[in-house]
Every structure is written in C-alpha cells, then in structure tokens.
Amino acid sequence: MLSLNKDHNPLTNKELIGSFSEYKDGLQNLLAETDTLFQELNPLPEPAHTSSFSLKNVLHGLPKFLLSTSSHKNQDPLPQIETDEEGGIYPDWKKKLDQALIHLEQEIEQEVNVRDFGAAGDGITDDTEAFRKAIGHGRAKVLIPAGVYITRGIRLPSWTMLIGAGKGLTTIKLHDKAPRGRQLVTNASHWRGNHHIYVQGMSLDWNVERLDPYKKTASGNNQSSCLTYAHVTFGWVKEVEGINPGLHCFDVSSAIYTYFGDATRARRSSRYIWLDQLNGYGFGDDGITTHHSVNILISNCHLCDPSGRSHKEGFSNSNGIEVDDGSRNVMLLNNSTTRCFGGVEIKAHHNSAAASNTQIVGHISINDNRAYNFRHIGHHIETDPESKTAFNIKASHIVAVSPIRTPLYKDSTPRAMVISAYKNVAINHFTVIGDPEYDYRGEPIIAVQYRSRNIILHDLNIRNFKTAGADIKVFGGPHGADSVEIRKVKIRNSAPTAVHIGPHIQSIKISDVQAVCEKGNKGLVVDQSNAKIEDFHSLGYKTPISIANTQQA
C-alpha cells in the first residue's frame, strides 16, 4: 500500500495523482468539463444578508460592528482557472499577485545577511536581536545561510523578503523560553495590516518539546503557529517546512478569528496569498489553514501526521488542509495529505460564515480518516438553522486511498468523502481505493447528507471496500440531502451495496453506473424516493436493483 512520509517531495504530486487517473483527454478538458457540470447544477444563489441599523443596535453590538462584516459583501463568482505559458494552472486573480511580486522586488533597497548582524546559527545562541536588526523597517531582502537559528519570534514588516538556504538547511527554531502563544514567524502588525511579504527556503521548528508533554499546545485564536499571515495583502510562502507547531504549520488569517454568527466574516482579512511547495507535520490542529481570507492559492504541498495536541485527546479535528471560517476564492492545486483526521476539510464553525468558492484541482489523500470533508457545523439536522453561506465547491482529479480510523478522533468513521450542508458541489473524476482487508464495519464510503443540495458526482472509480456498507450513500429523511445527481460511476469488487438512496428525496438522478462485485448483496437500493434511473448495470449482486419494496432482477 502506498505510503508517504514527512520528507515527501510535493513537486512529485502532479505525477503521483496522474498515475491513478484513467482520464486521457488532458487536464484542460477535464476542468472545462467540471465547469460545464457546475453550470448544469443551475447553481443556487447565495442569499444577501441584511441587518437593521440603529444606534442602540450599534452600541449593543459594538465588538461585532468593529470586528466583523456581513459575508455577502465582496461576493463574487468562482474565479476562472487559466493556464500560463509553461502549462501551469492558476486562478485568474494570480496575475495581480505576479505583478505585486515585481513591485516587491523593485522596492527592495538592500540585500543583507543575518550573519552580518551577529546571528550565530549554532542552535544555542539567541539570534532574535540579529534578525530584528537585519530586517529593520523593511524594504530588505534578508538572507539566512544554513544553520539553526534560535529566536523568540520574528515579525516581518511590509516590503520584506526572508530567504533561507532550503528546507532542512536553514532552520529557525523557537527559544525554550518562548511562551505557548508565540508565532514563530508572522507579519509585524496584525491590526494595521502588512503587505508584500515573501518567505522562502527554510524549516520552521516551533520547538514543542519546550512545553509540558501532557498539556494542550495552543493558547487560543490564531496564536501558536509556525507561520501566520494575519491581515496581509500580497504574500508568498515557498519551499518552507513547518515542524510540530502548537496550532498550525501555516495560517492565512484575519487579524483575529471572529465568531458572531453565520453570515459574518472577520474584518482585516488576508488577500492574495500563495503557499507553494510546503511540508508540514506534527501540527496541533491543522497543517495549512485559511480563515476569513480571500484569493488564496495552495499548491504542491504535503501535510501529514498531526499531533492533535491543541484539542482534547480523542477529539482532534486535525486536518492536512483546512479551508475554514469565512474564506473565499481558495484554490488547492496538486497537494497531498496523509494520516490526518481530514485530508481536505472545507467548513466553518456554527457561529461563522462558511468557506465558499473553493476549487480543488488535483489532490491525493492517503490514510486520512475523512479524505474530503465538506461541512458547516451546527447547520445540519432538521432542528438546526439552515446554512446561509455554505456554497460552491468544485473538485477535479482527486484521489482517496484507504481512509482509516484514527486515534485523533476516536469515534469518527472512515470516509472517502462527506458532503454536509453545502449547496452547489461538483465532483468530477474521483478515484477511490480501499484496502480489501480493512474492516470498514458496514459504513458507507461516500456520504451525501445533512441538507446538502445541488450536488453532482461525476466520473467516479471506486474499488476494494469489501467490508463497507455502501460505496455511495445519499441520506434521506427530514434533514437529508436533495437535488443530487450520480453519473458515470465504475465500482469494482467493493461494498455489498453499490449505491443506496435514502427515503423522501425529491430529486435524485442516477445514470451510467457499472457495478461489479463477487459477492454483492444489492446493486442499487432506493428507499421511497423519486429517483430517475438510467443505465444502471450491476453484476454479481443478489438483487441488482431494489426500489421501495420492489426488486428488479
């Protein structure tokens, strides 16, 4: 079985993901197909949110007024995906970021070496003051030769480039006396904001060993990470490794996280950020996360093996890549995750706007508990309020290999994909591979549930989940899913039931499904739903199709 360690080279992800693909018409055609599928959904519009204005309301809700804004402000459609001269794939807004990099390089007034300011890089000496002097007030390119540099934290002003000799060569490590909430590298002013900051070529060791091994490692909000961009416009992080942070390896954030309810986003967000060729492991919460930020590109990254120590033991929602509260226009390109709770989680807490307008192009998840987990917490069941903000996900050319149970979240069942509460979701070309010897305890592998709407699953290849309950299950009932289409699916030697459709679903379409199983039970089960079925072919199942107490041979 395929296994990736913390030293995996993420630049090989594109080739690795392609090795699982049966799509032969090229990635450009695949992305065009995904766009067509998304438009076929006739995407539900995101509602506008209004609030009454009065002096009393403003005074009573002053913290909310100062720290957050309505989520509908600055809403825009999903960015278009474009190709550059080298065949690279990027969101259309990246051209603005590329121009900002040219501007940054033009504004640099001096290139300095941190050693010239007294940095020892010997893993013993406190080099904090040397970094402070070398960085100055910005407009500097600061070179960091190979070595281990002990600091109490580095804060970067606008117009700054921090360049090391490479991962594992240049290491910046937190001082043993640094407090638990310290961010190892961050921008100088979270409240006023910074711009044009570039970090490249180093390992960032949060030095978790300095803490009591039995205590939680994070101190709250957006503290305790290896690298945090909080309220940064135009930022780059390239070829950097995050090691054992208390919270996150890499956090693209607003000045602070806010929780004033669904349909609210934090003010002072980060914008136009590119994270590329990053590795991270041992994280207390997530490897890479975004909060309340807009126009983020995450490419060629590998995240694995969280500690989960920012959470109560056994209840750690530690994800490889998390697109969280209030984020918009985030694109994930050719990344990999392994042995996390979630490989990719797109979500929000119940009291924040959901992440929206997220696009995934190429991802491989190996042994994550939930390879792809899309949800708005607290907006699921019939008694919950319906999410106002969980909209718009596209995912193309993705792979899930052997999701498994994890001590990170002890009661969570393995899933290749879960879609909960989100509307307008197009999944295209999804390869799902199980371990035929693993005990999936009769659970479904792909679950569409909890008020999700306008969902299309297209071009799925599923195999080897022999002990699962169903390969695909669409949950029904009063808080179930609806408006779901399952199209062009191949299932080989997998669960006893290929597709299970729950009760009381008003709109469900199933077409072009081929399922083959040596000892199958039911190919298709439809429980009292208005299913439209076309070209469903099953072989090796005792009952090929079972619809509302009728069976078809």
From TrEMBL:
Domain Rhamnogalacturonase A/B/Epimerase-like pectate lyase, residue spans: 112-210
Gene Ontology molecular function terms on file: hydrolase activity
Pfam families according to UniProt: Pect-lyase_RHGA_epim
Superkingdom assignment: Bacteria
UniProt keyword annotations, A-Z: Hydrolase
Keyword Hydrolase (UniProt): yes
SMART domains per UniProt: PbH1
Entries under InterPro entries matching the protein: GH28_Enzymes (IPR051801), PbH1 (IPR006626), Pectin_lyas_fold (IPR012334), Pectin_lyase_fold/virulence (IPR011050), RHGA/B-epi-like_pectate_lyase (IPR024535)
Protein's name in the database: Glycosyl hydrolase family 28-related protein
Organism: Fictibacillus terranigra
Taxonomic path: Bacteria, Bacillati, Bacillota, Bacilli, Bacillales
